[in-house]
Amino acid sequence: MGMRQHGEGPAAMLAIGTANPTNLLPQDVFADNFFRMTKSDHLTQLKEKMNRICEKTGIEKRHFHLTEDTLGVHPEFLDRDLPSLDARIEMAATAVPKLAQSAATKAIAEWGRPATDITHLVFSTYSAWEAPSADLKLATLLGLPPTVCRTILSLHGCYGGGRALHLAKELAENNRGARVLVACAETTLVCLGSPDGANLVGYALFGDGAGAVIVGAGPFGEGERPLFEMVSATQTTIPRTEHVLGMQATAGGIDFHLAIQVPMLIGQNVERCLLDAFGDDAPCDWNELFWAVHPGGRPILDNIDTVLKLDTGKLAASRHVLREYGNMSGATIVFVLDELRRRRKEEDNGHLLPEWGAMLAFGPGITIETMVLRSPR
Ligand SMILES: CC(C)(COP(=O)(O)OP(=O)(O)OC[C@H]1O[C@@H](n2cnc3c(N)ncnc32)[C@H](O)[C@@H]1OP(=O)(O)O)[C@@H](O)C(=O)NCCC(=O)NCCSC(=O)/C=C/c1ccc(O)cc1
Fold first, then answer.
1. Whose CA is nearest to atom 20 of ligand 1?
2. I want to staple 17 with a disulfide (CB 3.0 to 4.6 A). Which of 64, 103, 190, 206 is the partner?
3. 158 lines ligand 1 (CB under 6 A)
4. Helices marked H in 8-84
5. pLDDT tens by residue, 257-309
6. Distance of CA 50 to the CA centre of its chain
7. Which terms under GO biological process does the entry name (predicted)?
8. What is the pTM of this model?
């Protein structure tokens, strides 16, 4: 009893996979397409504003499950005054687990062990609104054993990936031999609607994608290779900010709001979270670390650069993911981790990537998930 039931050492990420719908839209034509499809071209000021916003997002393209063809069959999706929630939920019920399956299949292939060796599944999405939910569908699609312990995290929004990884760490460390599949899948099909003054930023920012990570603690099996050790993790909620960021279900689809103060609030609070997470091990200079930051928006990354006095390029993986995919909410952090390990490979077996790193994810609350990472030597 006791010790033998626990995993050895900190848990580690053993494999990473990502996936996106094939349909993609360059950001420089997004406003034109969006206003044409929603028959809103007469709202010229709003369209100009959308173009101004799109230019400043730091995004070059985004992937979407919805295509012009699908939208042709569902005109109610593009008119907030028509009820569309039922149709959106039905579409998401199939699309979300399938997108997750594409990412998870890649992660499992990299891991090298059979899917039946997965003991736990943690699924995070803002697009599942029914029970049984996307976690069960994914388990079935992947052929996971009927004994797999499933958890669905809904509506953590953009920190869902950080929350899922944090939970997977605790599951892996507390259950010897556990192998946790973390899956995050997000699609804007539940929220995309017609433009109004309040939702332009979200429409300009959010994209569709899925990320999957296999998490386990020691002892490691033959061929299992830790990509990032998950040394410690914390969650912090910024007091009295519950109203600045959120989403809610309406008959016309999921509504969200992103207050203009969000980047500033994150900038003001991020260093304290890092000091809490690192404790006595906090470096004198944050540049000593590698960084996996959720690219919630370009000004969020800019503010973090400023308050932490980071050198140019420290957030390159986050900026790359934002540019190529936009903000895919909870799935985004997995793309950033994947990009970091790709860069590490190119940089001569980890020579240039520092040994220690920090992962940050933010979302409604405002909640900040912080994790101390170690890149094994
Ligand atoms: C690209 C933006 C929109 C503009 O860039 P900028 O450098 O701030 O440029 P400007 O200051 O010139 O702003 C351009 C215009 O955008 C307007 N704007 C500037 N932020 C705003 C604003 N939050 N509102 C509404 N107008 C604005 C701003 O007023 C201005 O309007 P105008 O003067 O008419 O051109 C930039 O501010 C930006 O990326 N903001 C988004 C940051 C943000 O809140 N990210 C979300 C973090 S949390 C997260 O990741 C997700 C949570 C989540 C939650 C729910 C879900 O369903 C899913 C997920």
1. 260
2. 103
3. yes
4. 30-37, 44-56, 68-73
5. 999 999 999 999 999 999 999 999 999 999 999 999 999 999 999 999 999 99
6. 24
7. pollen wall assembly
8. 0.97
